[in-house]
Amino acid sequence: MQDLMIITKKDNIILKNAVKKLSENGISATILPMDKVKIKDSWDEHKLGVLYIEDSVESLFSELMMIKILMATHPKDFIVVGGESEEEELSKYIPDEYVVDRFKKPLDIMGFLVSARSALGSVNLSAKKDGEGVSEKPLKTNKKKSILIIDDDASIVNLLRGWLKDEYTIQPANSGMHAKKWLMENNPDLIIVDYEMPLISGPMLIKQLREDERTKDIPFMFLTGKGDKNTVMEVMDLKPVGYFLKPVDKEKLMAAVHSFFSK
User: Fold this and answer.
1) Does 2-129 match 146-262 in CATH topology?
2) What is the mean pLDDT of residues 8-34?
């Protein structure tokens, strides 16, 4: 089974570069033309859908109707590229709860990579829970501490991941929505979260996690580009185990993470 099914009316160099970058990171992807028959035939062969909207949602009526029919019986998570002014219309075919992320054009390839990796992590965990695709070999015990890094800026996620990946198991997420979905099946040892994010801000996310019995005790650190008194007070009221101003100092962050895990 392939990882991504990228549905598009017209192939382009940006999508080809995205597929190349995905492949370099161990994620398989197929670019499919906007064709009802091919969408139907390929639906069950892919874990995650990507809808790349070149024109208007209205111009894709027949293809979206096929997706709507397939979603009713075999729902699938989607990443949507383009069509940001027609989200309400698109929700008639792909319900909002199945849209794990949205991107404007031109596509931010690194952000797309982070998003796809995060979404596929949730898909793979759900499949294992249902008994599908489970390896017969016993899983190796990973003794590394796990850190969930949440930031809508892919460059920050990749920077921190590069610093920490040798000593810790890193799970990236580029939105609060992604993080919440991943946390439904996982319990990291630490969360590093950005203060300012669209839709669900860092403080809002932490407050929501504190209301959930499963996630209320997960410790977290904040990243923020704001150092004013009100921001600092709001952050400190949530009792983080760490607080860092952007641009993040590598030595300070590494020291704080090491100190936290050595307690």
Assistant:
1) yes
2) 92
